[in-house]
Amino acid sequence: MYRVLVSDNLSPIGLKLLEDHPEIDLVYEPEIHKDPSALKEALATTDGIVIRSGTKLTEDVLSGQKRLKVVARAGVGVDNVDLVAATRQGIVVSNTPDGNTLSTAEQTIAMMMGLCRNIGPASQSMREGRWDRKLFTGTQLAGKTVGVIGLGRIGLAVARRCNGLEMNVLGYDPFLSEERAAEQNIELYRDIDELLVKCDLVTVHTPLTDETRGLINAERLKKMKEGVRLVNCARGGIIDEEALLEGLESGQVGGAALDVYVTEKAGANDKLASYPNVLCTPHLGASTEEAQEQVAVEAAEIVCNFLTRNEIRSAVNMVPISGKELEAAKAYLDLAYRLGLMLAQLAGSEGIKGAELQYRGDVTSQPVKLITSAFTSGLLSAALDDTVSIVNSDVTAKDRGIAISQTSTSETGAFATMISATVRTDQREITAGGTTFGNDFLRLVKLNDYQLDAYLDGLMLIYRHKDVPGLIGAIGTTFGKHQVNISHMALGREKNEPGGEAVAVLNLDNAPSEEALKEVQGHPDVTGVQLVNLPPAKAPLPWLGL
To answer: Boundaries of each ACT domain copy (predicted)?
Structure first.
């Protein structure tokens, strides 16, 4: 059974999905997030957690969590999760980007309309018994130019609705293609300042990051059209609130509609809400029955599928991959992981500076970034006490100044698929290449300049030697004398010609004694001996139980 903690209020339909799952032990404690120490203690016996905005997974809360494997945020924003700390702990963090897309897009349009037609103050005046019709003359949206900053799922949904309102839609997003923008009838800009000066209304739909915090600031507000209206249903802080207040006071900003704030609690935003041309709501973007149910179901499914089917969906700190795709990539992940383990052991105490991977053939149709992470986890796990997995291997390597790069070509060479890795140390370069035979058999086919065919599993004795008659028999005799059984042998010769330098790989059934190794090393034609210990054939990968 996998233990799943739900630490915020969650829609009953999501809770039922978790409760009914035969492999999930649900613990529902929606108030526990209010006590960080209690939350931290509970996570020590938890495999997965479903959270909403109330739960703060800080570095302190996540520190030392060895059992926790996955966090699912029932919503889009994950700014309440320390992603760096989670990644270093090897914890997958996922959000539910689809569940509240439509609700947030509709909230944006509603705020835009309410702002331009003075719905809020007009309604309030009626409550107070007045009929101030002339005071609330508004402006129509049709024909106006709107700038949509951030064209992800929600931004695109807003843009489509603005097109339906006959607005001129300009968009800024550094990652959206011009072709995709044209399909959506969006005039795309790569320079945000060039866009902002042309807009009657601006709506922001980016995540809150160091790059987007204060994206709409005093300097940019001064460059916009006088009387520009601003809408923020994304994250508080994207629009600089102090700059906004100054713009409202001066008249440079004609109005603002805000659903999110830097500080979201009663009384914190009274000054903004006091302006008659500001429409404020208390973070209602996802507050529809449909959105709450959808994000709850998505979050529950993410946790269940991760724990029981190894599916990684909507992850924000690693490559998302379905259970079926992960199973298809298993052999390549295993191959890369073993190459990393072997190269780390061959490098020994030499300082590893970096590694380059080359993918050829069939493997290039697989998620090579994830496969590179598998290699990196093998490379680092041999030397580090910390648990290194495909989730945290990249950041762990970066923290230690180890540069990992990759290249790919779909062209095949001698094998239908080939993964080759070169590790650079302070003293030399070491290269190993491997391939797959079927779905279950992994082979070492290259070691530096030598071509060979060795089993890439279990205990391996690698020795360099002169290619002379009688040596193989002498090694076999030595191991036989010391009761060491050789299960397989592979030989690689320099330029594949007799009489030169060579390397041999012996797969052993049991570990040789120090005396046996000294005897092999002492042979006059042997120039080097190293033992490499890899997992047994078909052993599950350590991170996901594959």
So the answer is: 460-534
Q: Which of 41, 59, 264, 290 is catalytic?
A: 264
Q: Give the pLDDT band of residue 385 (cuts 50, 70, 90).
A: very low
**Spatial distance between the Cα atoms of 88 and 90, rounded to a whole number of angstroms:** 5
What would you report as the CA-atom Rg of the chain, rounded to the nearest whole angstrom? 30
Average confidence (pLDDT) over 259-288: 93
Residues 148 and 104: their CA atoms lie apart, in Å, by: 14
In this prediction, residue 393 has a pLDDT band, given cuts at 50, 70 and 90, of confident
21 belongs to the catalytic site:
no
Chain segment 485-526, per-residue pLDDT in tens: 999 999 998 777 777 889 999 999 999 999 999 999 999 999
Q: Active site includes 264?
A: yes
Please name which of 535, 546, 544, 537 lies closest in space to residue 389, comparing C-alpha atoms. Answer: 544
- 471 vs 543, residue with greater confidence: 471
Using an 8 Å Cβ cutoff, are 277 and 136 in contact? no
Top-confidence residue, 249 or 410: 249
Domain boundaries, the chain: 2-97+290-309, 101-280, 323-533
Tokens standing for residue 176: 């959206």
What CATH number was assigned to the domain covering residues 2-97+290-309? Answer: 3.40.50.720
Angle formed by the axes of helices 119-127 and 101-116, nearest 10°: 70
- CB of 482 within 8 A of CB of 514? no
Rounded CA-CA distance 208/218 in Å is 18
Dump strand ranges (E) for 362-437: 403-409, 417-425, 429-437
From 220, 235, 424, 465, the catalytic residue: 235
Considering 153, 160, 161, 283, which one is annotated as catalytic? 283
pLDDT (tens digit per residue) in 111-145: 999 999 999 999 999 999 999 998 999 999 999 99
The number of beta carbons lying within 10 Å of the beta carbon of residue 56 is 17
Is residue 235 annotated as part of the catalytic site, yes or no?
Answer: yes
Q: Is the pLDDT of residue 545 over 70?
A: no
- Beta-ladder partners of 23: none
| Contact between residue 470 and residue 422 where contact means Cβ atoms under 8 Å apart | no
d(CA 366, CA 356): 18
Question: pTM for this structure?
Answer: 0.66
> In angstroms, how far is CA 20 from the centroid of its own chain?
29
Question: By mean pLDDT, which of 262-266, 323-327, 477-481 is the weakest?
Answer: 323-327
Question: Between vectors from CA 264 to CA 260 and to CA 265, what angle results, nearest 5°?
Answer: 140
367: DSSP letter: -
CA 177 to chain centre: 22
